[in-house]
Protein 1
Amino acid sequence: MNLALWKKSFLECRWLLFGCAILMFAVHWLRVWVSSFFSTSDLESMFSFMPELVENLMPVSFSQVASSAGRIAVAYDDPIVLLLVTVWAISRGSDAVSGELNRGTMEMVLAQPVTRLGVLWSQAGVTIGGAAALATIAWLGTSLGLMSVTLEDPVSPRVFIPAALNLFAMTVFIAGLTTMVSSGTNYRSRTIGIVGGFYAVSMIVKIVGRLAPGWKWLTYCSFFTPFEPQPMVSNAATAWTLWTTKASGAIQWGPLAYDSILIGLGLACYLAATAIFCNRDLPAPL
Amino acid sequence: MYVETSLLTKRYGGFTALRDFSFGVARGEVVGLLGPNGAGKTTLLRMLMGYLRPSAGRASIDGLDCYRQSLGVHRRVSYLPGEARLFRHMRGIETVDFFTSVRRDGSRDRAIDLATNRFGLDLSRGVSTMSTGMRQKLALAVTLAVDTPLVILDEPTSNLDPTVRADVAALVLEAKAAGRTVIFSSHVISEVEQVCDRAVILRQGQLVHTQVISELRKKHRIRAQLTGPLPSVPESFNGNVLVATDSAGALTIETPDELSGLLGWLATLPLSEVRIEPLGLRSLYDQYHTVS
């Protein structure tokens, strides 16, 4: 392990991490604060006017969203939060190989007695560490928010840990996927374009699969499917299970399985990135 | 041989960047690579660094395969890329710190001494605010501060002013004096002639000529105007000198050996406007790369 590489990797992203962390904390803290202005009954009556189509789009029922824990859990798949983890994962993943090649700095780094494996994994280590930090800060935002307000139904901060873990797993997957694409391309913009396209298609696929009758199978083609922080909070009893058995006897994947799928796929992408990067020709600075 | 390539070839689809390139560099030797853009100099250096997988052939440094054992190779090599790009988020001193801490044999003090005293850089400046030449100097400082047996410099003096070019040449000679092996590519022929033991000329990815510089220094070209008929060349010079005349009476004599033996014969010739000049690497280079 080369400490200089780890240090360089951290210094490159410290301001991005700092900015994302501040926003992440703010969004989660504010969500708790805003939630304290509403009561469960207020929201239930408001949701009663909404069409069923909207409920189909939601990962949990309206009654679960209306509860204190449900209202706060929405923060974990809030568009701003998704944007923050996506920006972190894509900017870091795209920088891993194609970014360094694009800037021409890879040549100087690899002229030193370091392996390509060491270069890639020091970068990956900082990226995954940053993902863990962002998820932890999201949970800290929720926890400190809960300490600073009074809710009609008190909620323990611990019920949000599975949601934060799911957010971390999602970030690892996107970072791994981006690093894999990055390892095979020479231009950072190309990497971002490819991953951005995949991201958009995955999101559309999940929405179509959730809304269109007979197209539910499409949800299995989206990496957003195992990203379900809200049900993990609303169904606290099963939050730490790999699978559960329904009354009908059918087996349903539990939150830990979702996290394992995302982290497993992310790590598989990192391994693929390693294989690609360690065996490719490196172009001269572009 | 410390550096050795055998039939080294690099193909990109239908394009061959380097073809059957075989050469060797002895320990302590300084070798210059010459050739126009696209001749294959950088491809060769990048294959020595293990950045490119050979399409055929083999390259080794100190007996280690350049591609498969690149980590061991990099421990023995200090390399300056053709377009050295540094981290723009760092300051000069942070760049020195990074490159001297990333490898155990990096000397921070030497790098700072080179950068500040030799190249006159202000290391408190951010890399992003430095000019291209300043960044090149900084890259040179961190490269030459490492005490490796082999130094590879790819066009080290591009972007540099003449004063610093002279400093770089002096640094290469210092490395040679310290027993280090140096390979460097350049477009500046005089630079190669000044510091190298041997020049290797490439054309379209192939090695076309190798010239020992000390032998080149013995070669001279004599130009003169004939004022009478040219007597036959003495037998003792046959095969050693090239004599050419044109219809206007211009005489050119090229000698591969010491000039002293030829001077007595020259004095007997009916010549005017005699000019004697070293043959030089330029003339040799032009034989393979004539500007059309």
Protein 2
Amino acid sequence: MKKGKVLVGVVLGIVVVVGLFFVNKYWITPATTKAAKASGEFPQAPQFQLTSLSGEKVDLQAYRGKVVLLDFWATWCGPCRIEIPGFVQLQNKYGSQGLVVIGVSMDDGPAPVRKFYSDFHMNYPVAMGSDKLGMLYGGIFGLPTTFLIGRDGRIYAKHEGLTDLSFFETEIKELLAVPPDRKVADFKTAGYTAAKEIATSTPAEVNSVVPGVDVSKLSPAELKEFEKLLTQQKCPCGCGFTVLKCRQVDSSCQMSLQAARDAYQKFLKSHHG
Amino acid sequence: MRLIAAWLLVLLTAGAACAGGPPEVVSAKAVLATDAVHPGQAAKLAVLARIEPGYHINDHKPSLDYLIPTRVAFDSAPILKVEKVVYPRGKSVKFDFLDSPISVYEGQIRVGSLLKVGADARPGAYTLRGTFRYQACNDHACLPPASVPFEASIRVAPSSVPLKPANTEIFRTIHFK
């Protein structure tokens, strides 16, 4: 009897995992891709200016017209370390055709990154990242997270976690084949893309006193009133904080973000019509 | 397989307290080896950490110099001094992204601490707070270093009141020497 229950549990478990696999493969991912296209476009890559470990300016705008592989990584991340020799290869192979690899390290300080850069003979710019930069790119929750940006400055793919080099190569070739003045039609992701739209934020949202909500339309008095309003609302995520506090201590929380955005829309409507 | 692993990461992410943020993959609590402690005497405390299935955290003494060690840290407490922290031995696991196995913690682990209660500690209830610091990965991605707080309620009893053993099963597995 007990054995039978265990067997049923195991079979159910297998059915759930297999079900998730097919849901992902045939339903969610195509739907997401479709949604991204139907809603207009793949998102524009948020601009940033950083300084590389060697002191050079890394300005994303300056790479317009090129295909950019933007890799968020860290030296303490094993899966990140294994991907990097492949990125060095890709830079060597496709650099002359217009590929630029940019590494953004999420380490706390540059010392281990400099050592790694030298030990691994990295041949592309690496700069130190920040949570704010991560927020611009929709929040970097796990490493590695890699974005592929087309010549037109749009993000065409986001890969979370260790990804086969061949997937990157297929996507890079596809993006390199499109001239800078043309849109990438029917871009097909070669590998796994997160089952959600590629979300980005604006600098006004990231630098806001209510992280994630662009409050630039509010006067100083209105902003104070809006902040007060958010301190009166309990965050729906269960953290125990108010919506404002939750936004400030955990800017990655999507539930407080939605609550704050909803409150902002209502506030804007009541104050600005 | 990697696709399924990635999907599981997404699902775990969705299940985080604040959905959409990094998943909280470790929880921790602290327990004492006795129902109370005596002024001027030693006491044993264990931090019990639970690591979500599918994830691992690094050994306190990591196999590779670039890995971030697991650490238990205590806030300063006026009546207590932490004299020793004893970490369990990790499990040797081989991951696809490494050439050789590394020592990691998975599942549930117990970190022991030897405390010394101040001789002048007055009988009463106290709280000892601390943090369990870790950096977690699964077999294809890593989460940023994180820490989870824990606290232990500690009752200082007069020396004349005998102490009762508590959580004996837990402390039997921790080797303080």
Protein 3
Amino acid sequence: MGLGRRLYRGEIDVDFVGKWRLWYSLSGLLLAVSLAGLLINGLNLGVEFKGGTIFSFKSSQASVEQVRESVLDQGVHQVIVQQAGTGGWRATTESLPEDTRAQVQSEISKDFGVPLDQVSIQAIGPSWGGEVSEKAWIGLGVFMLAIILYLSMAFEPKMALAAIVALIHDLVITAGIYAWSGFEVTPATLLGFLTILGYSLYDAVVVFDMIKEVTAKLGHTSKQTYSMAANNALNHTLIRSLNTSLVAILPVAAILFIGTTVLGAGTLKDLSLSLFVGMIVGTYSSLCVATPLLVTLKEREPKYQAIAKRLASTGGGAKGAKNSKKAAAAKG
Amino acid sequence: MLLALFLALGGTMFLQQAYTPKLGLDLAGGTTVTLSPVTQNNAAPPEEILDRAVNIIRDRVNGTGISDAEVAKSGDNIIISIPGVGQNEAIKLVATTAELRFRQVLAMEATQAPADLATNAPTPSASPSGGKSDEPSASDPAKPKASEPVRPPASPSAGAPQPSTSPTGKALSSALVAPTPSTSAEPSATQSPKGQDKRGTKDGKSTPAPSDEPSQPPAEDPNATGINTEGIDPGVLAQFKKLNCADPANRGQGVQDDPNKQYAGCESDGSFKYVLDVAKVVGTDIDTASAGVRQGTTEWVVQLDFKSKGAGEWSKLTTAAYNSQEPRNKVAVVLDGVVITAPNIIGPIPGGRAEITGGFDQASATTLADQLKYGALPLKFNRSSVDTVSSTLGQDQLQGGLIAGLIGLALVVVYCLLYYRGLGIVAVLSLVVATVITYTSVVVLGHNAGFRLSLPHIIGLVVSIGITADSFIVYFERIRDEMKEGRRSLRSAVEVAWVRARRTILIADAVMFIAAIVLYFLAVGGVAGFAFAMGLTTLIDIVVVFLFTKPFIALLARVKFFAKGHPLSGLDAERMSEVGSTGRTTTPQEA
């Protein structure tokens, strides 16, 4: 049977929990690489964070050189010219006073035969980026607190902790990818980062819900340790997790495709790129980080230690999650 | 219930004949200005002050006659949305503080003019003739905010302005006398005094050869020594000495003047610096302001009517100035910390009217009048971002967003059908229902609650397709679980699975909703719109799953095609690997 078919029939049984060492070291490595990237390369902050002016217009007859000259003629010191989609142009300069902005606008209009009101201007003050990122940090903090509270109530504090750690894991790795790749970070990217939070948790919540249901039945007589039960639950929701992630990533991929090919640089691309990267990382972490972490935390509880001990001594599925299949089969 | 919702939304759309959503400026084209308050230590300004600022800005925007503009608060920021482009004047108008103060001049000094300043503002206005300010500025001045005198509003003749002759009591002084002459220390030659210069130029009667000017030593105005320091606060005097008006930073936005203290400030073009007394008359003393052309001239002026208290103060202030020695016979009109004009007062001005001249053109006079009329902003603001989107760029983005949405939707539909077969149809129909509800909600909100669809909204909606679809997936997988156990009929499996799936869906949606709320209230700019879309679709998701998907599946469970597990239904036995077949039989429920 092919993998797809086995997946479809729910016959897949991957030992996510038992391989925790592998996942932890993989994630540890990824985190280290990401942090190194952040420290060495830093993030490539967009003009929105540094302050500056962006002129956008459409013209089929312009070239990068022409646009550059046309803008620099107006007493502008720095300009980055980008092509944005088909016939679209984007010239990014330092912060310009209002008069200069108007001059550049009319010069572009004249040089490339674009009506004046078809030259878009985006002017960002130098303090704006600081404000955006400050708000983002506050938002992040409040969000995490709210989630910890909510998950502690809906589930339990250890699940909340595991979910939050997985979430920070996702954010750091996504940021690391941005640092190494040099993708530009704009407010739209931040927006994407913040949304990843929701997704990353959404997936973890569904998995945890199943784990909670399964492990609630664990008692003195049960034949499964917490790890085994959790792994079972994880496998059980695996199809759903993969389906969900795929279904979530498909529209994002569509936006990324359109944003990159048709429109070029801009909000659409920035946002969907960070979502795309974040969702992939998020899917990995909800399977391979959140649950193993939860298990590590829970197995320390006396109740589950007792079960593990008992099973170990009787040999009934002693070797942890790996034997879950056997144990289950024995029962079934 | 769902039907009721449909009818309500659809009915509203029909009644209002509104079938398309209102578009935000990033899609329709227009200018969006974000104003951030400038406060000490970056402390958040009190809510009520921000609200007041919003109201004043709204009045000002409406006063300009721009239709459909919007002013809204977003966190500590104020966001102004103006449709169409090329409204630079309007943007300037709405964002400046417009704190007007009338202060008696205590001392003044010409700036060491840098070369360029000297060249364009140089006129030997020294001659008292320049003083014929009444002169209608035959040649329309560019738009120099020179310190032109405050003039009697109804001064009889353009030619010879005798304060005494001004017919009505409301006339105010006109500063015909060039500031210079009387002070001994100030050789008339040095008069670079801007005000007169400008006037001179305008009048065309002066002999402005710019080139002469630099040669004159107006720069080092000797009167530094001649300042009468009596009554001047030493601290302010020190500031005055240090003040460099050639630096635009000292006369731009962000200059603060405390009305209850003496103040050292610059003329708007940097030509003079002043020590000014405490403000005796302030903007709030103004009853109304209007822009007009001074009678018998082509010169634009701003006319002020004071409230009764203000009129009394104004009368006192002008009387005091009238009785003082040069340069204390001038009253400076200070706008946002910058002196826009400082005319001589030639007589007390009772009657509560005044007229400000200052080389205005129609636009600048109207702007100032509007600012004064609607009141000063209680806060200073930075224009932290100005975003002008042309209509074509907006269309491109709208198109891109919609195409992306359609592609995304199509991919999800194809996937659902391939994977879930018959059940996939339920998913697709549910998505269609969700899309219709979302669309009608957006339209209805747009026409009734001022909701404008912008790019972040569209992205939020597209991204949310995944969330909505996920609810179905959770439910379907649960049904399949129940079926796999093999001990249930489809009909009971649908019910049992629902109880379990419902809880998961609610918890997961709650997490999304918390995310949306936190983002909405704490984020800036487009983030709020995105969060709004996310929150909206999360709610719609719950509505659809509860009111459509679940009942619909329950209905299908009675249909033979599904109940018997037809291979295309997605519920067939073979696909379920039901009990008895090889492989794993454990389900978590059995653990």
